[in-house]
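Here is one record:
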Amino acid sequence: MKILSTRLSARALASAALALCAFAATAQPFPSKPVTLVVPFAPGASADGIARIVGRELSTALGQPVVVDNKPGGGGATGLIGVAKSAPDGYTIGMGATGAIVVNPNLPDAAPLKPQEQLAPVAKVADIPLVLVAGAKTGLRDLRGFIEKARATPEGTSYGTTGQYTAQHLAGELLASMAKLKLVAVPYRGSGPAVTDLLGGQLPVAVVDLTSAYPHIKSGALVALGVTSATRSAVAPEIPTLAEGGVPGYSATAWMGLFAPAKAPPEAIEKLAGAIQAVVARPEVQSQIVGLAAEPRYLGPAGFKSFIHAESDKWAGVIASIPAPQK
């Protein structure tokens, strides 16, 4: 009996040791394996470029590979839906932007993504500067001149956008509301085609990304009436904000940030956020982001969550005031 008891004790100890080993394997500090960064945009876009810069540096900061996985579609929502449905362990995160996070959920035909319920904000990374720009042939030189001319045009002043309900479109609608103007949005398939029509004189003004317009602003072919952000852009600090130019309190930015599934462990989110903060603070990373005509802008999980809530409320109000597009 004593021998049998000894054997049973040995087996129990062995089982306990195996259990402890298994627990230790599952309780390793985050991260203990590669992290997947889902980018819901096509390779080569500025958003993809920013994601790859952050992913590369984040890999070094975390000590684990960060694998970029492009999953475009649905205006940036498709890839984020995949993130929301992934295992909530912090090993799958996604890059989210203005449209998918705070605009699309407020549209009548919204994608099946509820960002504030299904995603956990990790960190805001960058702002994408937009600019209200006029063709040189219009004779416009500043925002006040544009406002005066628009108010003297009762039928409305046309302005180019990159499509219905894009950040550029909504920035124009917010300007119309705050400055009490009648503006008529003309949708284009991107900033490039809108800039082409500005240069040709077929379009008086447009809200476009600064990347597309800046070379023509520097050459004098286009006139910058103001950037849409609350502060001047590091990319073009000589251009005043629309708030400075005559619409106090105006602010409309496009932005990008990182998200995890809603139930991801808080410790994993904090570890990711801390690493991202360190990455974005590096001067060489900032210069690379600015080189893509974006502004490094870090916000941690709590600040980013509050920012998203305020942005969603703001754009919901603007969207509600826009007449439904004709079918």
